[in-house]
Amino acid sequence: MILGHVDSSSGPAVFFRLKDLGPGDDIWIKREDRVWVRYVVDRIAQIPKSEFPTMPVYGPQDGVTLRLVTCGGAFDDRTLRRQRDRVRDARSVDVEKHSIDEVVVG
């Protein structure tokens, strides 16, 4: 699981484009041992904060999975928070060994 902000008062943050990920899209993660793991998005959700399912989101998952979570929806000026959370689930489909110079992101 990776949690990140979508934006801040100074502009876009790490998950600003998370809304653009859809089913079938690839996500590459480099592990600490420098091995790259490819995940494929298989589920997307946008959940009202008042209905956030804590245990299903933060609880154990079957298999090798990745879950990305950030805020989303309209910004509420009264609470200074976004009204929804975005969740992207992905499953591991590939593991490859690359040196840092062999992978091009873009």
Give a brief outline of the structure.
The chain is mainly beta. The chain has 1 helix and 7 strands.
Features:
single chain, 106 residues, mainly beta, Sortase, Chain: A, 5-stranded mixed sheet, two-stranded antiparallel ribbon, 1 helix, globular, disordered C terminus
Structural overview:
The chain has 106 residues and is mainly beta. Helix content is 5%, strand content 51%. The chain contains 1 helix and 7 strands. It has one helix spanning 54-58; strands at 2-3, 7-8, 11-12, 26-30, 35-48, 65-76, 81-97. It has a 5-stranded mixed β-sheet with strand order 1-6-7-5-4, with no helix packed on it. The protein starts with a strand and ends in a 9-residue tail after the last strand.
Q: What is the overall number of helices?
A: 1
**Overall mean pLDDT score?**
84
E-strand count: 7
What CATH calls the topology is Sortase, Chain: A
How can the largest sheet be summarized? 5 strands, mixed
Count of discrete structural domains: 1
Distance between the termini: 22 Å
Classified by CATH, the class is Mainly Beta
Write the layout of secondary structure elements.
Elements: E1 2-3, E2 7-8, E3 11-12, E4 26-30, E5 35-48, H1 54-58, E6 65-76, E7 81-97
Parallel strand pairs: 1-6
Antiparallel strand pairs: 2-3, 4-5, 5-7, 6-7
